[in-house]
Design brief:
The protein is an alpha/beta fold. The protein has 15 helices and 16 strands. The strands form four sheets. It has a nine-stranded mixed beta sheet with strand order 15-14-13-12-6-11-10-7-16, with helices on both faces. The protein has a three-stranded parallel beta sheet with strand order 3-4-5, with no helix packed on it. Strands 1-2 form a two-stranded parallel sheet. The longest helix is centred in the middle third of the chain and has 26 residues.
């Protein structure tokens, strides 16, 4: 779409000795594998490949870092955006090496992938080390969920409509559920995943970011400081779930063998090749302790090898205070619900009660109907964009609204660390669940104990 500035060059760097052509061939091959033929535009591809450069470097080899810095300076034609997709332990050293060679000053930014550490202490160490080279406004921490169309649509829905805001609080909302279900297993990333688990891999970042967007106060503007100031307040209002609460407020699970979409799949330990106590599923009953949300449970769950790939937010409103219809109808009366489906399809559904057609003689009969808005149909001519397209564009243009600020990452770790510590102290080991099910039975009782049930 010709959104990249004319002079923009892309300099690849890794330890592998490659030349420009070799790097371009790798990129072309990867694009060839991923972009469906019908969407491929040879001129645009050529244009992209022409922008590529390559320079091998290794953080522990100063001469190579110096050569890299010289290339950056020689190619520089405006701002510079570094994107580090390395193991997080290299973030600090790499940033410092760039600074030492004079290419981390004004007009440069750095984009960092998750995970920023594995707990609060390691996150602080990484952030401190990066901060020696790049000040916070120039650090772009990626949570790719924020780049998803559906997630931005949640912001549009909440703050572009007057309809929801008056109802968006504990007086009108009974419970909130956020689910990120995945059908995949660990996808050959066992070494990383086994150290991490669902709590650190998904909940600390993606799930808590979604929770922030649902629960935050309206920011004054859609710009980095205003949005992130509101998100951090939510994170700081999360009621701690620690040693005394984990047994009742959290569930950890690990998949065993089972079937997904009728195909047999192995259990986690088999995929990993050894036994493990890492959770591949987590469910929590969280609370945002502030005026708006006091008393409203936020049920959060995420897991691998669940029955379907689905990311959704479900807001259940309170029931009508009293049914004028009486009798049997009173028990048929269901609360209104708002479903915001983010993946795989983007859809918004509002559950309403309506009269069931017919000549009722004992009073009206009511049933639940859904007002359904399908974004794929509604915007059928618009191409859907994957998260990284949005994030790269924003980072190139210096807009940090959809990136995570240091204090958010650290507040999220602090909350998650208490849960991990609680599990350790209470000797909680993940409960098994067969692949292709919605986690251990304990996840069902987590909600049902409080008169709620997961929307499935
Ligand atoms: C990543 C996690 O951050 O998000 C993966 O490390 C997970 O374990 C992935 O599979 C899910 O992202 P998406 O975009 O496929 O929902």
């Amino acid at each position: 779409e010709n959104l990249l500035p004319d002079g923009l060059r892309i300099l690849g760097t890794a330890r592998s000795e490659l030349d420009r052509e070799g790097f371009a061939a790798l990129v072309a091959e990867s694009i060839g594998e991923r972009i469906p033929g019908a969407e491929r535009d040879e001129t645009a591809l050529r244009g992209l490949l022409d922008r590529l450069e390559y320079s091998a470097a290794s953080v522990d080899d100063d001469a190579s870092m110096q050569a890299l810095a010289q290339r950056v300076s020689a190619l520089r034609n405006g701002d510079v955006l570094y994107h580090m997709s390395t193991a997080p332990r290299f973030y600090g050293p790499a940033c410092q090496a760039l600074a030492a060679h004079g290419v981390a000053g004004a007009g440069t930014r750095v984009m960092l992938e998750k995970p920023i550490g594995k707990d609060l202490a390691s996150a602080i160490a990484i952030n401190d080390s990066v901060a020696e080279a790049f000040d916070e406004e120039r650090v772009y921490r990626v949570d790719h969920y924020l780049g998803k169309e559906g997630v931005q649509n949640l912001i549009a829905l909440r703050f572009g409509n007057a309809l929801f805001e008056p109802l968006w609080d504990a007086r009108h909302i009974e419970q909130v559920q956020i689910t990120i279900g995945e059908t995949v297993g660990v996808e050959g990333r066992g070494d990383y995943y086994d150290e991490s688990g669902a709590l650190r891999d998904m909940l600390q970042n993606h799930l808590l970011q979604l929770l922030c967007l649902v629960a935050m106060e309206p920011p004054a503007r859609f710009e980095p400081t205003a949005v992130r100031n509101e998100k951090i307040k939510v994170l700081r209002s999360l009621r701690p779930i620690g040693r005394d609460e984990v047994a009742t407020e959290s569930v950890a699970g690990q998949y065993t063998s089972g079937a997904i979409e009728r195909a047999a799949v192995p259990g986690y330990a088999d995929e990993l090749g050894r036994g493990s106590r890492t959770e591949t599923f987590v469910a929590l009953r969280a609370h945002v302790d502030n005026w708006r949300w006091s008393g409203v449970p936020f049920y959060l769950r995420t897991g691998k090898r669940l029955p379907s790939r689905s990311t959704e937010i479900y807001i259940q409103f309170r029931k009508v205070p009293y049914s004028i219809f009486g009798g049997a109808t009173a028990s048929d009366m269901l609360p209104n619900g708002l479903l915001i489906k983010l993946q795989p399809d983007e859809r918004i559904e509002l559950d309403l009660m309506a009269k069931t057609p017919g000549l009722d003689r004992n009073g009206l009969r009511l049933s639940q109907v859904g007002l359904d808005l399908d974004f794929h149909e509604e915007f059928a001519n618009q191409r859907r964009r994957i998260a990284y397209e949005r994030l790269y564009l924003d980072a190139i243009e210096g807009n940090g609204t959809l990136f995570v600020r240091r204090d958010e990452t650290e507040a999220a770790w602090q909350w998650v660390d208490a849960i991990a510590d609680g599990w350790r102290a209470a000797g909680i080991i993940p409960k098994p669940y067969p692949a292709g099910t919605w986690g251990p039975a304990a996840s069902v009782s987590l909600t049902e104990r409080h008169g709620h049930s997961w929307r499935e």
